[in-house]
Design a protein that fits this description.
Number of helices of chain A: 10
Radius of gyration of chain A: 20 Å
Oligomer: homodimer
Largest sheet of chain A: 10 strands, mixed
GO molecular function, one term (chains A, B): pyridoxal kinase activity
Distance between the termini of chain A: 45 Å
Helix content of chain A: 25-40%
Pfam family, one (chains A, B): Phos_pyr_kin
Largest interface: A-B, 55 and 55 residues
Keywords (chains A, B): ATP-binding, Kinase, Nucleotide-binding, Transferase
Number of strands of chain A: 12
Shape of chain A: globular
EC number (chains A, B): 2.7.1.35
Strand order of the largest sheet of chain A: 3-2-1-4-5-8-9-10-11-12
Order of helices and strands of chain A: EHEEHEHEEEHEHHEEEHHHHE
GO cellular component, one term (chains A, B): cytosol
């Protein structure tokens, strides 16, 4: 079992905490720990459950509280982190407070290239809609300059790049813009539904029931080095999958960088030499393993959800009005879709499924990117 | 790997959270998750680090905040817990708020004996000294009546029983008093240094470098059914070991009760029939596995601590005054003694060392307990 652990990695994880279920740090902490990472979890909110239930109770940390906790670590020399994983923060000021933590850790590591790496998940919205205050967007735009890897979803990539993603061409344009605008060397856009995009170049779109994950590590001239992985989509919405993706990526990227050797681990931002093709990038190798683990866990979650829903049958209580009955049914279905994490840990440690990473070749790109 | 998981168990864990290191829920959550338990962590404090560093920053939850989080779970039907593990609470009102949670869960389960079990760690102090406010003691005394298993250390057992533990006789007296006063069916007194106690009965005290863990499950007449396990003591103080003990006990006791069969799982408070000898109690079987896991993890922690301290050498900085130098050295030694949890998970899952559980026979007890 010790063999399936990734190299020793100390992670500061700054994200939300929920008592029940697995999103934010309540997902990421266990995922990274299972792979052998030492995780320090700084929680930006403390909620009873995730917001998909449409009701919750709990508290949000203020920017000052986040800063204080970090100062607590500093004063006792407890900031020897290899990686910062930053996720949801509940206000623009909180995003800036987390940004200052990242900048401070970077500053401490500045004479040791590669000794600190910042993975930033710019949690702002999904499906065409912001679910944070408007002022959170400029706060992220200021912060992302300092990150080494960002993990926007399709909507967040649009917000950050200013490019509406409607085709492979505009997807490439968005990634190029993100590399250029924010000087961020690594990007993964999690879950793009390519079948909805218009076709361009010679690479066919995957079929309708597939999701595509697109990533890129810049070359030294700042141009993108794009890869893509297509994975079968599962017919259910699961909360916390973005956090699972981010946490697995931290562990698997670190592992792939160590495996790559050739001093990559001590290279600023772990950027591979220009002659490494996109499919051989540590980021691409990591993504394949990440998606494999996720697919197995979510497949089993779907089975367990279906069994749970079938066992009890839908909420039918004549004493409840139709609105209350609908609400109870929503709660039941949301609970049933909680990711089945702890008893599927073997799929986190030992990914089984083999997905294929595809280089996104120059000839597949629109003319201006070739 | 799936084989080393305990039966499916949903635990509500109410205790402290630290960003860095492993105490409270920052210990217990991962320990229980590693063994396959689904853990909902409700955090009573959010500190940067444990108090053994002698400095920390962070926030304490109010009683109202604890209650609100639980109400958040209730309103979304997320209270289907098999076990409550309650640990540190930062005030008397918070202890009472946690108590109300336990009572509510018990109430919900009252028509299904054995379907809910409450493990209570009455965190009040250690080594002869309270580290909570005086009013926390009566709050615990009111609450413990409802618990199924309590895990006091020697000092806390003295506080709860009113008996000063100075000998095997007074130890038996304390446990008997706890069973009787609080109607609590299971007790484990964690770490008693028996070599310091005066001898009584025919069972010899263990040698000086051993710790003794004493447990008991009542018989139907309320009398104690005592067992003891002696384990080699390690020459270092580790924070969070009480929380590791409690978390492992939740998982292993649940496992042992399922293994015991004969309807024990659906018996109120999982109390074995009177003819089960103390050494065959699920509580005793669990304790042996718990201590085995702990011994392996702590042995490796000690090795890693020594290596870490040797690698850097003591704090020597001429620019610091002697007081500051001493403080820095304390911080360094405290950090080095953080329990090495995540990379030793195999010892949690598959305990190797074989400790022996001893029945504490009637003839070893002072006359009034025979």
């Amino acid at each position: 079992m010790a063999d399936s652990l990734v190299p020793e990695t100390r992670v500061l994880a700054v994200a939300s905490h929920v008592v029940y279920g697995h999103v934010g740090n309540s997902m990421a902490t266990f995922v990274m720990q299972s792979l052998g990472c030492e995780v320090a979890a700084l929680n930006t909110v403390h909620f009873s459950n995730h917001t998909g239930y449409r009701q919750f109770k709990g508290t949000r940390a203020t920017a000052q509280e986040i800063t204080d906790l970090y100062q607590g670590l500093r004063q006792s020399n407890l900031t020897d982190f290899d990686v910062l994983l930053s996720g949801y923060a509940p206000s623009a000021a909180a995003v800036e407070a987390v940004g200052s933590i990242g900048i401070d850790l970077q500053q401490k590591a500045k004479n040791k290239p590669g000794s600190f790496f910042w993975v930033l998940d710019p949690v702002m919205g999904d499906q065409g809609r912001l679910y944070v205050n408007d002022d959170v967007v400029p706060a992220y735009k200021k912060t992302i300059h300092h990150a080494d890897l960002i993990l926007p979803n399709q909507f967040e990539a649009e917000v950050l790049s200013g490019v509406k993603i409607t085709s492979l061409a505009t997807l490439a344009e968005a990634i190029t813009a993100i590399h250029r605008t924010y000087s961020v060397p690594h990007v993964i856009i999690t879950s793009v539904q390519l079948f909805r995009l218009s076709q361009s170049g010679s690479t066919p779109n995957p079929p309708e029931n597939f999701l595509t994950v697109i990533g890129s590590t810049t070359r030294s001239d700042g141009s993108p080095r794009l890869f893509r992985v297509d994975v079968p989509a599962l017919d259910c919405f699961f909360s916390g999958t973005g956090d699972m993706f981010a946490a697995l990526t931290v562990a698997r990227l670190r592992e792939a960088v160590v495996v790559a050797g050739n001093g990559l681990q001590t290279t600023k931002s772990w950027v591979s030499p220009d002659d490494v093709p996109s499919s051989a990038l540590p980021l691409a190798q990591a993504t394949v393993k990440v998606l494999s683990s996720m697919h197995s866990v979510l497949e089993r979650t779907l089975e367990a959800r279906d069994a749970e829903l079938a066992a009890a049958g839908p909420t039918q209580n004549g004493d409840l009005g139709p609105e209350e009955q609908q609400k109870q049914e929503h709660l039941r279905r949301t609970k049933a879709a909680e990711v089945r994490l702890v008893r599927n840990v073997r799929f986190l440690r030992d990914p089984l499924v083999q997905f294929t990473v595809q280089e996104w070749k120059k000839e597949d790109l629109p003319a201006q990117f070739q």
